[in-house]
């Protein structure tokens, strides 16, 4: 039995209605492009327990899907299926205990940064999703329109929008706040995915970057994982550049996860052969991609400066 429906979600930080299918009690989303790709809507938290059942259902449905994709979640990293597979890199921090992380998995430089946060008067603690926390989130989101060299998705949102959009998954999340003189200057929304925790949102104020807030937020996240007997802390995809270096210094490791692609139609097979199944961004050679990112960062920085000058005038 397969059911088609649409639902409201966030796509790149903006509300959007997405096409969905319900198969075997799980929700799958459809994305249109060179081919229509189907995957679990929330694959960080759910497993495809019976891919054969899903494939059969898709082939017999009116959804007109071209490719079905799924991966194996931690700690299940050894390929178990015969479908076409590619490796996907995520950032995973194995958790034994907080003391083991502190003494064995990070170096003295990171420990000193975490100590610095406390010496600066920053208190990192578990928080509640109340109006004060949401006001603090909104203030952080609206500090700057550009983060990590790209336009920040949540910039410009008001209190009501932030409160509604980030309340959807509170039942599975621990909230961590970093406070300086009673001001929220950083936060983590830490999702419990069963065997591991995942950083759904981690952000801090640029104004207080001298206080190494993000390092202290990760330390608190490790403490919570150890207390809840979660085997890993996951910081989404591995990535590159300064963010990947930050993850490495905090003890995260590049961990390869098997991702499978199952063509359902001739279009799906052709898309796989041409390497278009991951989107046009993946086709661009890395040197060209790095150059384009640099140009984008410079353009956005110049645009931000122009905006500040206009406000002053």
Describe this structure as you would to a colleague.
With 313 residues, this protein is of the alpha+beta class. The chain folds into 2 domains: 2-86 and 258-309, no CATH class; 96-230, Gcn5-related N-acetyltransferase (GNAT) (Aminopeptidase), CATH 3.40.630. It is 34% helix and 32% strand. It is built from 9 helices and 14 strands. The chain has helices spanning 51-59, 98-105, 108-119, 131-141, 159-165, 213-227, 241-249, 266-274, 286-312; strands spanning 2-11, 14-23, 26-31, 37-40, 67-71, 84-94, 122-127, 146-147, 150-151, 173-180, 183-192, 196-204, 232-237, 253-263. The strands form 2 sheets. Strands 1-2-3-4-5-14-6-13-12-11-10-7 form a 12-stranded mixed beta sheet, sandwiched between helices. Strands 8-9 form a two-stranded antiparallel sheet. Helix 3 (108-119) crosses helix 6.
Summed up, the domain count is 2
Radius of gyration: 21 Å
Distance between the termini: 62 Å
Low-confidence stretches: 306-313
Number of beta strands: 14
Mean pLDDT, as a whole number? 90
Strand order, sheet with most strands? 1-2-3-4-5-14-6-13-12-11-10-7
Q: H/E order of the elements? A: EEEEHEEHHEHEEHEEEHEHEHH
Anisotropy-based shape: globular
């Amino acid at each position: 039995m397969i059911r088609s429906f649409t639902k409201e979600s966030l796509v790149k930080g903006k509300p959007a209605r997405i096409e969905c299918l319900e198969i075997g009690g799980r929700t799958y989303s459809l994305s249109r492009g060179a081919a229509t790709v189907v995957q679990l809507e929330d694959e960080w938290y759910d497993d495809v327990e019976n891919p054969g059942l899903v494939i059969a259902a898709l082939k017999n449905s009116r959804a007109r899907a071209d490719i079905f994709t799924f991966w194996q979640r931690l700690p299940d990293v050894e390929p178990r299926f015969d479908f076409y597979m590619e490796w996907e890199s995520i950032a995973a921090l194995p958790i034994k205990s907080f003391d083991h992380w502190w003494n064995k998995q990070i170096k003295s430089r990171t420990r000193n940064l975490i100590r610095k946060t406390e010496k600066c008067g920053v208190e990192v603690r578990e928080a509640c999703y109340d109006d004060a926390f949401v006001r603090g989130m909104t203030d952080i989101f609206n500090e700057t329109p550009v983060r990590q060299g790209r336009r920040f998705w949540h910039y410009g949102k008001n209190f009501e929008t932030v409160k509604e959009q980030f309340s959807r998954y509170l039942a599975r999340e621990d909230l961590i706040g970093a406070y300086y003189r009673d001001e929220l200057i950083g936060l983590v929304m830490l999702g419990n995915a069963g065997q591991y925790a995942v950083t759904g949102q981690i952000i801090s104020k640029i104004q207080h970057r001298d206080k190494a807030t993000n390092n202290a937020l990760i330390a608190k996240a490790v403490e919570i994982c150890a207390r809840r007997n979660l085997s890993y802390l996951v910081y989404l995809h591995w990535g590159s550049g300064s963010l990947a270096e930050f993850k490495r210094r905090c003890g995260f490791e590049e961990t390869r996860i098997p991702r499978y692609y199952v063509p359902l139609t001739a279009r799906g097979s052709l898309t796989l052969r041409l390497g278009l199944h991951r989107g046009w961004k993946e086709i661009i050679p890395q040197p060209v991609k790095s150059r384009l990112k640099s140009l984008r960062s410079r353009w956005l920085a110049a645009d931000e400066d122009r905006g500040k000058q206009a406000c002053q005038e």
